[in-house]
Amino acid sequence: MGLQIDPAFVQAAEHRPKSTISDAGSIPLIDLSPLLHHHIPSDPSDPSDPAIANEISNLIAQIGEACRDWGFFQVVNHGVEVELLEKVEAVTKEFFALPAEEKRKVKRGEVNPMGYYDAEHTKNVRDWKEVFDFSVTEWETKLLRLENQWPENLPEMRAICEEYYKGVEKLGYKLLELIALSLNLSAKRLSHFYENSNSYVRLNHYGPCQSPDLVLGVGRHKDCGGLTILFQDEVGGLDIKRKTDGEWVRVKPIHNSFIINLGDIIQVWSNDKYESVEHRVSVNSKKDRYSIPFFFNPSSSTNVKPLEELVSEDNQPKYHEYNWGDFYKARKDSNFQKLEKENVQIYHFKRV
Hints:
The chain is α+β, with helices and mostly antiparallel strands.
């Protein structure tokens, strides 16, 4: 049966998924309901009503612990309307059900990475998936153009997707403030990097695969941006590498929740206090799986380096400064086609 699989999809033996995988179980589940009623304080030491301060302080502590111990956590009562989640999931399924020739009319290219694609590579092995990427803010630099492409025969898709982007972006800013506070920074310390951001949303479809022991929906990787906010269906397939023992564990889907993970940029900003954690997507032999990550990324002009408040004589900067726009372009190029060398990683900027 394995011989029927295109060799481009086949993972090296050491990276193939095991036939059984444990449930992550203890991945932090965080209730964001205090944010539905209270404002996030501007500073960790802001005075406020003791009861409110206790609720928010507990929430910040939970976020900090999850970032430190897992690099991943799940959130419920997040403020994004259930009806909106249902609409974006429905239109995602409608899009991927279109005939191949219709999807290819909005196919992305090497210059513009927005649109449909079905031959993405991770670690130079082809992923078992098809994707559709879109943003809300279209922009162009000398290196890259972000220009949305929408299918003509799904006229409602654009409005639903843009509404979803704006809803999840609001959540992203709240999470960014909580993460900043957990690092003992002011709440807005990271937010200014996101003016004119190049954040985007991806619609993922992972079709059934007759050899799920040989291929991966997405190969092992760490997210290179700031923060990822993932909505997934009930099928499941997201695996993360547990920091305590290096074992792969499955993240159990929780209805109408979001899975949050830190990207490389937060690892660098925090000077390794928080870590971007390796993860992958396993495929299912019988079921289609759909997921919708929002990649919350700073402006392409941002120069990324450890934050000055988090370095000291005893804790020197662990990374050289790099430009996010250049980094992002290099990663997009390597995802677009198979290369003969590994794509750029943050450890290439690690100080010796």
